[in-house]
């Protein structure tokens, strides 16, 4: 069996605008309380999206964030046992390391980015401790412990918490 896609991100220069757009469009709610690596997003500007699943259980967790000075992109992360080893292998196959490995503060998570031979940005995620896949299957957000959510309420308005 190959390595699974375990997380997605949408990064831009105005996270508030992205949260509003994706919250209104898809009904997503964001948890900005868990820390994200500064290489990924400005502190406080990254909102984790719960694992929104369909009736058959499909769906993966993700995050939306960024801030001024962050390149706009969408990316998916593949779960790997060792991020450094996977980055080295990607380089040996014609890819280019773009970031990492970086440890996420407050979590057993290491991430890295590379571009494939065609220039597509791809993410890698691995756990420092217990299995990343075990944590994700249990519903843990990829960045840390969940403590609050915010996004669109049932009336279509944002919550009063600072986004």
Topology:
Elements (H helix, E strand, L loop, with lengths): L4 E8 L2 H12 L2 E3 L15 E3 L12 E5 L6 E7 L3 H10 L3 E8 L5 E7 L5 E7 L4 H6 L12 E2 L12
Parallel strand pairs: 1-4, 5-8
Antiparallel strand pairs: 1-5, 2-3, 2-9, 3-4, 6-7, 7-8
Summarize the structure.
The protein has 163 residues and is α+β, with helices and mostly antiparallel strands. It has helices at 15-26, 83-92, 132-137; strands spanning 5-12, 29-31, 47-49, 62-66, 73-79, 96-103, 109-115, 121-127, 150-151.
Write up this protein.
This protein has 163 residues and is an alpha+beta fold. It contains 3 helices and 9 strands; from the N terminus they run E-H-E-E-E-E-H-E-E-E-H-E. A 9-stranded mixed sheet has the order 6-7-8-5-1-4-3-2-9. The longest helix is centred in the first third of the chain and has 12 residues, at 15-26. The radius of gyration is 15 Å and the shape is globular. The protein starts with a strand and ends in a 12-residue tail after the last strand. Residues 133-163 have low confidence and may be disordered.
The number of strands is: 9
| Shape, per Cα inertia axes | globular
List the total number of helices: 3
Low-confidence stretches: 133-163
Question: What integer value in Å does the Rg equal?
Answer: 15 Å
Element pattern in H and E: EHEEEEHEEEHE
State the helical fraction.
10-25%
- Overall mean pLDDT stands at 80
- Helix-strand category: alpha+beta
Strand order in space, largest sheet:
6-7-8-5-1-4-3-2-9
Percent of residues in beta strands: 25-35%
Report how far the terminal alpha carbons are from each other. 39 Å
**Which oligomeric state applies?**
single chain
């Amino acid at each position: 069996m190959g390595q699974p896609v375990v997380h997605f991100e949408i990064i831009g220069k105005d996270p508030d605008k992205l949260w509003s757009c994706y919250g209104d469009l898809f009904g997503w709610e964001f948890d900005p309380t868990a820390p994200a690596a500064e290489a990924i997003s400005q502190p406080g500007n990254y909102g984790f999206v719960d694992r929104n699943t369909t009736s058959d259980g499909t769906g993966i967790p993700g995050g939306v964030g960024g801030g001024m000075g962050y390149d706009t992109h969408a990316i998916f992360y593949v779960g790997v046992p060792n991020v450094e080893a996977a980055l080295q292998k990607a380089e040996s196959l014609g890819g280019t390391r773009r970031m990492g490995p970086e440890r996420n503060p407050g979590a057993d998570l290491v991430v890295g980015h590379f571009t494939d031979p065609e220039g597509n940005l791809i993410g890698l995620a691995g756990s420092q401790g217990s299995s990343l896949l075990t944590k994700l299957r249990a519903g843990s957000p990829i960045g840390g412990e969940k403590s609050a959510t915010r996004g669109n309420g049932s009336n279509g308005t944002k919550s009063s918490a600072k986004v």
